[in-house]
Amino acid sequence: GPDEQLVETLSPHLTDAVDSIVDRGREVSEDSLRDELRPSDPGEQRYYTGPIYLEIGDEPDFSSEGPRFVWLFLVGASTGALSALALVLMKQRYPRVNNDDDFETAVGMNLWTHVGRNGRRNAATADQFAQVAVTAFESVETPSWPRRILVTAPRSSRSSRAVSMGVAASLVSSGERVLLVDGQPERRLLSWRLGGARAPGMTDLADRTATLQDCIRRVRRWRLPKAVRNTLTANAENLRFLPAGRSGASGEATVDPEVLDELDDEVIVVMLSPPLLGTVPVSPCLRRFDVVLYNLVEGETVTSDAEDAALQVATFAQGPAGVVLSDV
Q1: Cα(28)–Cα(319) distance, rounded to whole angstroms?
Q2: What is the pLDDT of residues 184-209, one digit of tens each?
Q3: How confident is the model at residue 249 (pLDDT cuts 50, 70, 90)?
Q4: Measured on CA atoms in the order 131, 132, 133, 136, is the torsion positive or negative?
Q5: Is 185 exposed, middle or buried (0-12, 13-18, 19+ CB in 10 A)?
């Protein structure tokens, strides 16, 4: 067969090849073996002096092999997991507001209602925003909607902005004319959202550098969050927006709610107030508004911040105030 022919062809050369391998191995190892077997002198440092086993080229090779994708993925995943764990542990340093808290004892206000958080998951619904508006109406015990509704929170948050837009949209859908006001000149995120970040607004009215008619703007529906767009089902033309305004002439941002007295009595004002723990005074707003919606976020708002900020509401608010809890 073919194998037998191959053996017959190679057999004359196998003996010579094996002899060559044995002779070369003897040459390489014989000197080293004799050196190992000879007696050593006291204090002698013995080390290998035979030929090297790896061949070294004449030209240096500076090329390098990059890390493999799997290694990069493992390092990135481990770093992300450790960072997320560190963030969770940092948040656990301070107690957070949750649904089981006794709000009347902790902040001096009752829990009025719940809303979903702003976002794609667990977002607030039109019925929840309508419930907030109805709760505000029931709190004043008047035959008509309260004309001045203030949405406030310990610190600037995405949730408080969503509540203010949602309540305004719910009132507009019920047939009311509503002016949504951004009262946070230090963080004009609501104005950025609705396209009036560089337009004149509340700070310009406080400095008397603009008129109310110059500052009021229309609201483009596509700029509203999806949950608010779902709430604004009708009469969208009755919604107007008053931006936070530009920096004041003195360099200090101020908000003066008295400028809103020029509005028609039929217009309902829903204002996002400055953060209660911020640097802009909130007491003028608390004194002049009919209802205060105190927005807290479950699992996010620090309990000590909620308690400290509630002191201003209890001290300066002239109308009823209640907690609107944004759920996780």
Answers
A1: 101
A2: 998 899 999 998 888 999 998 988 88
A3: very low
A4: positive
A5: buried
